[in-house]
Amino acid sequence: PACPSAAMRLAALLAALRPVLPLVLGLSLGCSLSLLRASWSQSGGEDQCLGAAGRLGPLAGGVHREAVDARPGLGPEDFRPRIVPYYRDPNKPYKKVLRTRYIQTELGFHERLFVAVLTSKATLNTLAVAVNKTVAHHFPRLLYFTGLRSAKVPHGMVLVAHGDERPIWLMYETMHYIHQHFGSDYDWFYIMQDDTYAQAEQVKALVTHLSINQDVYLGRAEEFIGGDEQARYCHGGFGYLISRSLLLKLHPHLDSCRNEILSVRPDEWLGRCIIDFLGITCVSQLQGQHYHTYELAKNTEPEKEEEEEFQAALAVHPVSDMTLMYRLHKHFSRIQLDRTYQEIQDLQMQIRNLTSLTPAGEAGLTWPVGINAPFLPKSRFEVISWDYFTEQHLFSCPDGSPKCELSGASKADVSEIIESALEQLNSRYQPLLRFSKRQLLNGYRRFDPTRGMEYTLDLLLEAVTQKGHSHVLAKRVSLVRPLSKVEIIPMPYVTEATRVQLVLPLTVQDLDFVANFLDMFAMNTLDTHDNALLTLLFIYHPYDAQRVSQVDVFAGVKAMVGELEKRYAEVKIPWISVKTEVPSQVKLMDIVSKKHPVDTLFFLASVWTEVNMEFLNRCRMNTISNWQVFFPVHFQEFNPALVYRGEQTASSSTDFLRDGHFDRHAFAEACFYNSDYMTARTKLAADILDRDEVLESMELFDVFLHYSGLHLFRAVEPGLVQKYALRSCNPRLSEELYHRCVLSNLEGLASRSHLAMALFEQEQANST
């Protein structure tokens, strides 16, 4: 009787395991095959490799055995990335690794193209200037080389003079100079004459399609007079391209070429040098890329040239005068512009054809085609507002006034947009209709960071038919000025090791906050050994200055400074006493500036500032001598009595930068170099002469804005957080400064929602 029961239990167990049985069998089979494959690899792989190496024997030329595993065809300078394992000798003490300034230097990247223009003293102010105005700004780096320089170098041109006008000597010195100063920084070197017009964009496109792993000597190939039929040199009048590898190999032979090769033409001399010592001849096409050139005849009219060879030319020679250079540039720029417009139309057509295949269909097609869709705000706080304008006035002014005259760049922008709108309307409706502008009724514009500047125009137009009938109508048009290619602005290198000199002006009204400032300074800079110093500026009222021998209002602050100097023996905190009724920033900095070296980096702080290492590093990085000054916008916390209304103050990190705002009315904090301030102050003194009362209405921001010519970097700074305090506004200051101080106090009370809640509670209390 037990057997049927056991059979039933077995059948029930198999029924329960049946769904997972394929999974168990698959896992078992996979593990078995993995073990078998691992055993095959271990049994045969290592012995076979060792046996092969043993049969090969020692390698020729002293190459190590590890080189057997290297891939064939790779030279000593391989351009494939490779991982270098990190190894540190445990017997040697640890030493900090010095990193390079830029990551491209550490990775060994080179710039793409360097251009050298050969000119002379006679043509420096004519043809060389024409080259500089037409194509120089299209190349990443361009230098002019001449034998003898003129008395005055044209503006915006970097000139290298070798001191000798002999053509061969000029070519020799130029090649030597390029190798010495730029040989390790660039991949390609393009050499041209000042009577050559080169299409810069085409030259840059050419080098992007050529491999840097070859010795390249590319240009218009010419035969030597009475020489080998197979040997060619590159004609200098049409420019030629040399790779970095060829330049590095050629440099050791330049002296021999100068002494042994006789030639009248410098391009022939260079070509003979490359052929004799490197065995490389000039070619006009390489790796599927053609170097197209065109030789201009006398009295050529570029606008009437219709030959295909001229239209496709990468370099044109000879250019006899400046006017011809400008005409060539205009002609080829128009050709390039037409090609670009045609490419845009082709791409837009392809986008329209492919849109029907997308999940959104034709509804997902944005206008203009190929431009990003407009920004969609997720809340009312993200809505981008429109600015209203007419042909005469702008109703959204930079200074906050409701209406101002349309002038400068804004006026030119509006005029260009109206002309573009008329041009687009006429191109669409002609010859049936021809439009002319009567009046701009309404104009709106806004900047969308995802796509560019958007415009909406209400135009009063006069439409004329083919028969001469006219009609006045109003039409609304929309236009977009899309964002073009993003340009990286080169900035000078700065370091975080610069010493920061803090300057803290103090008045009698600031005495209650000095203790907190000194505590934060000691904790965030002195305890961390940050490279920062502090100078206190005691501002005495004339009445307090007379009684300083009996009662010193700053005696308590001086005692706190003494305690800090006792606690930190290596720290000295100097102070400067000033007597004035109107504590002008400019007058105070005049005193401080004279007591410090010109290379001092100042941080002008306020007594409510909580100094920390994060901000000091940004102060160092954002302030660049003779280039940029930094005016941070601190974060001002609201009045806790209005925000929390008796509740516990939120102190968690999640509420950081929550109950407050960035005070855009405050300009008390500033980072700048003493040399930049002295330069701007000198220009200011020459402008105002002896009218010192003007300084009372100015801040440092105004000095740098109007008299320095430097970049003023004004940005929000989350590292500068100030507790709420009611600032005392000095009525002796100018009206603008006093008004700005009052606005700062009012906007720093609380947000609109907090103020509304406080008023609501007050009304509720009054009603009861």
TrEMBL record:
The UniProt entry, under InterPro entries, shows: Chond_GalNAc (IPR008428), CS_glycosyltransferase (IPR051227)
> What keywords is this UniProt entry annotated with?
Glycoprotein, Golgi apparatus, Membrane, Signal, Signal-anchor, Transferase, Transmembrane, Transmembrane helix
Give EC number(s), comma-separated.
Answer: 2.4.1.-
How does this protein lie in the membrane?
Answer: Single-pass type II membrane protein
May I ask which residue range the UniProt record assigns to the signal sequence? 1-22
Localization, UniProt: Golgi apparatus, Golgi stack membrane
Which is an annotated GO molecular function term of this record? N-acetylgalactosaminyl-proteoglycan 3-beta-glucuronosyltransferase activity
Question: What is the predominant subcellular site recorded for this chain?
Answer: Golgi
Any Pfam family from its record, for instance, is CHGN
Q: In terms of domain of life, where is this protein from?
A: Eukaryota
Q: Which GO terms describe its cellular component?
A: Golgi cisterna membrane
What's the family? Belongs to the chondroitin N-acetylgalactosaminyltransferase family.
Q: What is this protein called?
A: Hexosyltransferase
Q: Which organism is it from?
A: Scopus umbretta (Hammerkop)
- Give the classification, highest ranks: Eukaryota, Metazoa, Chordata, Craniata, Vertebrata
